[in-house]
Write a structure and sequence with these properties.
Layout (H helix, E strand, L loop, with lengths): L7 E2 L8 E7 L4 E6 L4 E4 L4 H8 L6 H8 L5 E4 L1
Antiparallel strand pairs: 1-2, 2-3, 3-4, 4-5
């Protein structure tokens, strides 16, 4: 059985370090593009953290990335 996994881009939150942030709660992943142009896919991102972000509980993208992404398994994207 195939499942469709879609990333949701977080809009309306300004950040001094994160240019774009997209999350997928189905796979516990996030894609972070930093303001310096580097882009990473992070795995094993906390599901509850993702849901809190999607519900507007996090007012800082940088704090979310520091708390839930950095230190996790990641892949640098082109």
């Amino acid at each position: 059985m195939n499942s469709f996994n879609m990333f949701s881009q977080i809009l309306g939150v300004a950040s001094t370090c994160v240019h774009t942030l997209s999350v997928c709660p189905n796979t516990n992943q996030s894609i972070v593009e930093f303001n310096n142009g580097s882009k990473y896919l992070y795995n094993n991102v906390d599901f509850e953290g993702i849901m809190d972000l999607l519900c507007g509980e996090h007012k800082s993208l940088g704090k979310f990335v520091n708390a839930y992404c950095l230190g996790n398994d990641c892949l640098k994207l082109a």
